[in-house]
Amino acid sequence: MAGLIATAVILLVLLVFLSRAVRVVPQARAVVVERLGRYHRTLTPGLALVIPVVDRIRERVDLREQVVTFPPRPVITEDNLVVGIDTVIYFQVTDPRASTYEIADVISAIEQLTVTTLRNVIGSLNLEQTLTSRDEINTRLRGVLDEATGRWGIRVNRVELKAIEPPPSIQDSMEKQMRAERDRRAAILSAEGVKQSEILRAEGEKQAAILRAEGERQAKILAAQGEAEAITTVFRAIHAGNADQKLLAYQYLQTLPRIAEGEANKVWIVPSELTRAFGGLAAFGGRTDGPDRTDGGQAR
Q1: Torsion of CA 268, 273, 276, 281, to 10 degrees
Q2: Is the pTM of this model over 0.90?
Q3: What span, in angstroms and rounded, lies between the C-alpha atoms of 117 and 83?
Q4: How far, in Å, are 8, 32, 255 from residue 22 at the CA level?
């Protein structure tokens, strides 16, 4: 009976020893182990053995990237304006031993270093540069923080300015300036629209006038061509009929009344051929009247 009790006690002691000696380290974690009060080793993810009483777990370190947001802090610009800036830091522990023994409070140290560096950077910029140079400020902050935290076993991956808040009076002035700028752009766009509209209207009127003049020109050309063809046809018909001077004189006499209808026609031009034609008509009339009178005389 005593042997069974002793065996059970021994087994219980072994179980307690194994429970204290065996350690399981999760993925993306690291465990700092001290032996007799001094740094002994760093346990990596997986199964590890430690000696109870002699070894002691000093710190469990998270190796994943961490995000820390710092509240707005007042910063003075080069032109003596106070702005509130809050930052976001993305960092990662690369050396668990250094992060455990080189710095007491990592988060507080990063925050104070960020505020100090931010005041140095913003102090060399005016308000306008501060509002428009976020990328430059982020790059300078990251460079300074990464260099300072390197000996703490920490790598700063990224620094972002979450918000930049100027004083209320400056914000009101900026809003008025932006409103005036928007009004100016709206006026410019409206003027450009009116200008383009007037240009298009003038171009349309120009094209319409050109087309109208072209139409009138074509109409006159066609009318002139029609008159020319009519004259040519009449001329050909006259020559084809072998007209003599008497017929021409007769046609001219028929045209004289139409010539006289114009108010501007003050001078009549009588061709020389017309007098000869009249002479021919007179001779023709004399020959016609003579026999009648002779016949009449003979009858009487």
Answers
A1: -80
A2: no
A3: 15
A4: 21, 15, 138
